[in-house]
Sequence to fold (96 residues):
Amino acid sequence: MSIQQSKVIKGLFFYSPFSFESTLRIEVTMNLQDNLLELDAAVEKLSQGVNAVGLMSMGLVQTQNPYADSFCMLFNYMVEADRAVHAYLDACFEAM
Fold:
């Protein structure tokens, strides 16, 4: 094994049967997957917030609050955006 066939990554010296470019692609893909999983968790928290706004708007409607219509409109916009974000996130996971 020559120095040309070995790689140094993060201070470790090891032999890689793959080219440096393919090793880099694997690392980038793994980082992208990790980031998508983190994004998925954050989007899930936002979805829970959207659901909470929906419950609050239903409560306002039942109490005949004058702000109920505005709150319902806000909830409808948030639901549409939430669905779109989930669709794009799902497409990213499928592309991996």
User: Anything to note?
Assistant: Residues 61 and 69 are 8 Å apart (CA to CA). Residues 1-15 have pLDDT under 50 and may be disordered.
